[in-house]
Amino acid sequence: MSIEVKMAWRNIWRNPRRSILTILAITFATLLLVFMLSWQFGSYDTMINFAVRIHTGHVQVQANGYRDKMDIRLVVPDPAAVGDVLEKIPEVAAYTFRANAFSLVSSRDRTYGVIVIGIDPEKEAAVSTLKKLIRKGKYLASGDTDQALVGKLLAQNLRVDVGDELVVLGQGYDGSIAATVVTVKGIFSSGEDEFDRRSINIPLRYFQDVFSMRGAVHGVVAFGTSLDDVEKIKNTLTAGIKRVSNNEDLVVLDWMELMPGLIQAIQMDLVSGFIMYFILIVVVAFSILNTFLMAIFERTREFGVLMAMGTTPGRLTKLLLFESAGITFIGIIVGIIFGSLITGYFQAHGIVISGASEILRQYGLPERMYPQLSVLSVSVGAGIVLIVTILAALYPAFKVRRLRPVEAMTAA
């Protein structure tokens, strides 16, 4: 161990109260950053998983242009061929077929415009959380025909309950009138008001009959084993479709392309979060700056004597940088330990945000949220604190270089 390191360690504890307060400031900043970044990443993971489970899946195969126009005539004509490709991709956990149509739905008293979604009951249950969202009645069975699942808010607006009939009126794939009567088999509540207000689900085969789809669908929805596999699934599926689609105009879209609004919301939240973190780091930086400026003022005469004895300004600068690094590393290590322990506890038990349940429900988020401790959340928080605190210590450290031995030794 070099003499500078030994002297730096001794000098850190010359004024233990000041050093401990500085270490605590760094510890608190690191702890807070580790926890808050883990909280943010965990909430993003929850948002993404909820959205892809109930809406888009990780990857979808659609007709080119369907995402923008939602035209009933833009279809995937041979969904079974796409399904065969998905069966051969090991990263795909499950997939399903869906068809959509804008229609009028009428009860005895009221009429609303909704999206009628045709789903394969068995495959849908493996891909989405729809089956778990049934709050009244039952989920669709594979042999059902004229049965429907209705969103809770839509059921309230239409004033219907389980067992009541609804008249569906829309336009078919071939331009014909699509009309049928369905019975409400179940009422679901996803917590996302827009979805619960504007959609009903009916069996896919029945949908294809009513809307004259000729076996076609509007989307093949795939769910991967994890978000990390999405890009690989997309690339493999794109290559596979080119071999089996007979030059059909099909595209493969991932969840980021299907839900750009969600990505923008995450980016905005990250920016606002980092602004808050920047303010916190600035406060800590000034604490470090104050600590070392005070150390220089108190030890000016000592520095003058050392310089008069032949100690170079560069060596004194190195000494002060070692001191700042020592305090910083102690604070960061302690902050990482306690931040990880606190985050780990809440990652296991969750945090109930009961006061914000209504706001969270609008975004489809549960009341209980879970931070997600990761190497990224630990390293980013600790790295930011390390860089800023070291930079803050540079000014007082290099200030020593301008000291003159005679003036320093006679300083009050």
Describe the structure.
- The relative contact order is 0.18.
- The chain folds into 2 domains: 3-51 and 262-409, no CATH class; 65-248, no CATH class.
- The longest helix is centred in the N-terminal third of the chain and has 41 residues, at 16-56.
- The mean pLDDT is 84.
- It has helices at 3-12, 16-56, 66-69, 79-87, 121-127, 152-158, 193-198, 204-210, 230-244, 255-258, 260-298, 300-308, 313-349, 357-362, 375-399, 405-409, and strands spanning 59-63, 92-106, 111-119, 134-137, 147-151, 165-171, 177-188, 199-203, 219-224, 250-254, 351-352, 368-369.
- It is of the alpha+beta class.
- Strands 2-3-8-5-7-6 form a 6-stranded mixed barrel, surrounded by 4 helices. Strands 11-12 form a two-stranded antiparallel ribbon.
- α1 packs across α13 (313-349).
* Count of discrete domains: 2
Percent in helix: 55-70%
Gyration radius, to the nearest Å?
A: 31 Å
Class computed from helices, strands and strand pairing: alpha+beta
Number of strands: 12
Tally the helices: what do you get? 16
| Major beta sheet, strand line-up | 2-3-8-5-7-6
Strand content: 15-25%
Instruction: Categorize the overall geometry.
Output: elongated
Keywords:
about 400 residues, alpha+beta, 2 domains, 6-stranded mixed beta barrel, two-stranded antiparallel sheet, 12 strands, about 55% helix, about 20% strand
